[in-house]
Amino acid sequence: MTGSPPPPFTAADHRARMERATRAAADAGLAGLLVAPGPDMVWLTGYTPTAVTERLTVLVLTPGHDPVLVVPTLEAPDAEHAVGASALTLRDWTDGKDPYAVTAALLDGAGRFGISDNTWAMHLLGLQRTLPDTSYASLTDALPMLRAVKDAAELELLAAAGAAADATFEEIRKVPFAGRRESDVGHDLAALLRRFGHSQVDFTIVGSGPNGANPHHEVGDRVIQDGDMVVLDFGGLKDGYGSDTTRTVHVGEPTPEERRVHDIVRAAQEAGFAAVRPGAACQEVDRAARAVITDAGYGAYFIHRTGHGIGVTTHEPPYMIEGEEQPLVPGMCFSVEPGIYLPGRFGVRIEDIVTVTEEGGRRFNNTTRELVVVG
Ligand code: ZN
Ligand code: ZN
Ligand code: ZN
Q: Which InterPro entries does this UniProt record tie to the protein (predicted)?
């Protein structure tokens, strides 16, 4: 299951994405975009430097000009190989030269630019020093929906990543839980994700017993015991696209209360999923899931938003949260992951990745949402 092919995106696909991004920047009143190595650059160009160093690499997108990748001379051959000569122009700079002057020459001296959230501060400061009449906006704040609507090839990759995460759950439910540490089960999860084609594991949450009541708990040394609820939340990247799913299992026979809490979360997850349709605001998904938990009396114990987008990263816009009025559009992909967290006792979360279709929602995670009893 390893050695999978790279994402099927061509120089023409990347060119189209860069044109779309440049148009969106102009529509948002920006003079252009400055894109640092990271998810935006990968999505726009397919290029990721082997190491992100203090040497400046930046993609410059300005309306009316060809895209230019400013790159250190020693990395230029790799960049050219990755992006293909047809997609953009390379502008390399050699050690000893001022990379900000090279970049500034592409920016017409003034204006407001969108810049990748993960740009190193030293680079932003260098640009500001070189071009005092420029100003900068966070690219995610300025263009939150840039990568949100996925095309058919991206949807296929996200579906495949989801299926690999599902295969991981089908295997993990067979392993012994009682008597092993959370970290042991976490290692099993990571190994399974890789076995099913993931090249990168972003998180393996194993929250047993009271640890499950902390949604940010990853794995610890706690030995899992008979009677524990265990929150399993895991994902990463397969062929460049993300997976992220949660199932909560129980070691041995659950109590009536544990079953009830799990049933409430399952109903909330179902209600959130049912609210997914084109034109619905993101916050409606959150409200639908939250209403079920609130009506059952556990509203104070659902302490996070209902979902987040997914694509070339495992957390990105759009967010399913109160106040987010962005309408859903076919092709958007995000999690629906309500939970109930009872401090000092246990937690329950159920999470699927969902995409918006013309008819409503389609899940990329399809393992059972019943409470699974493990050994
Ligand atoms: Zn129990
Ligand atoms: Zn998750
Ligand atoms: Zn998630």
A: Creatin/AminoP/Spt16_N, Creatinase/aminopeptidase-like, Creatinase_N, Pept_M24, Peptidase_M24B
